[in-house]
Amino acid sequence: MAEDYRQRAAHATALSTQLRTSGSVTMDVLAQRIIMAQGLTHTALADVLSLARSGAARTEDGLAALVCLSRASQYAQEAAAALGTSMTQSLDDLRRSRRTPGAPVVTVGPPPHQLRQAAATLLDHAAQQYAQATTSSTPRRR
Question: Mind giving me the DSSP string for the chain?
């Protein structure tokens, strides 16, 4: 289980790195990254379900791991939502610029690249939660 959590943390970190290091991205790449973030959400929820069914909430360490996994799911879901907003806003901007060529693009809210950066930060938080879940779920030696 701990190794699975480490692998999931690595996936969240890899996606975060992709978001931070890429400049402008095509809509298909952005859609793939949304799907990846949603996959992290799904996996974290599946981990919560599995751990909850094992009775982990009966111990302090198990409960701590459940909290971490729940937070990882929340952060990944919020990252997917931020990426979805980024994609929608980018498409709206493109549509407006085609309607009125040469006019400056006026966006409401943060620009798409800031939303992608926010999503990267949220994915970093998800990775941290998985790392903490790894610590909580690792049997302690006496």
Answer: -HHHHHHHHHHHHHHHHHHHH--S--HHHHHHHHHHHHHHHHHHHHHHHHHHHTTGGGSHHHHHHHHHHHHHHHHHHHHHHHHHHHHHHHHHHHHHHHHSTTSPP--SSS-HHHHHHHHHHHHHHHHHHHHHHHHHHSPPP-
Distance (Å, rounded) from C-alpha 6 to C-alpha 26? 30
Q: What is the pLDDT of residues 40-94, one digit of tens each?
A: 999 999 999 999 999 988 999 999 999 999 999 999 999 999 999 999 998 888 8
> What does residue 54 show for φ and ψ, rounded to 5 degrees?
-80, -5
CA 16/CA 119 separation, integer angstroms: 7
CA R_g for the chain? 18
pTM given for the model: 0.89
CA distance 125 to 130: 9
Cβ(66)–Cβ(52) under 8 Å?
yes
